[in-house]
């Protein structure tokens, strides 16, 4: 669900862009979670440490979904959004560039 605080004051083009980004994040979250079920031999790859552990993928997927639910973030959601971002970085062992994260929020 898109956060409506401050959202209704945005131009229609910006509202549509934010809805599109939230939807895209949900799709990516679902695809990520599906990989642990649909990738043949995932458990073997996990045992060989070629892929991240299943539980980290599921948790990262949940954090991505959570982030999509607070787009656009209002002032009270900023800390929550930062927390989701940190969780995603930790679970997937990646670093999201600061510039990219600020321009996308």
What topology emerges from the helices and strands here?
Blueprint: H1 12-38, H2 42-47, H3 54-68, H4 78-92, H5 98-103
Helix pairs in contact: 1-3, 3-4
Biggest β-sheet strands, sense, barrel: none
How many beta strands in the DSSP annotation? 0
Q: Between the first and last Cα atoms, what is the distance in angstroms?
A: 16 Å
Structural class: mainly alpha
The average pLDDT value, as a whole number, equals 86
Low-confidence stretches: 1-5
| Backbone shape | elongated
Give an overview in words.
This protein has 105 residues and is an all-alpha fold. Helices cover 66% and strands 0% of the residues. It has helices at residues 12-38, 42-47, 54-68, 78-92, 98-103. It is elongated and about 50 Å long. Mean pLDDT is 86; it is low at 1-5.
């Amino acid at each position: 669900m898109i956060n409506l605080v401050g959202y209704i004051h945005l131009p229609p083009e910006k509202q549509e862009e934010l809805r599109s980004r939230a939807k895209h994040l949900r799709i990516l979250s679902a695809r990520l979670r599906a990989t642990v079920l649909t990738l043949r031999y995932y458990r073997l790859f996990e045992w060989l440490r070629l892929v991240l552990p299943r539980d980290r993928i599921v948790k990262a997927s949940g954090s991505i979904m959570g982030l999509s639910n607070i787009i656009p973030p209002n002032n009270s959601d900023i800390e929550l959004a930062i927390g989701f971002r940190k969780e995603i970085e930790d679970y997937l062992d990646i670093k999201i560039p600061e510039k990219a994260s600020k321009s996308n929020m």
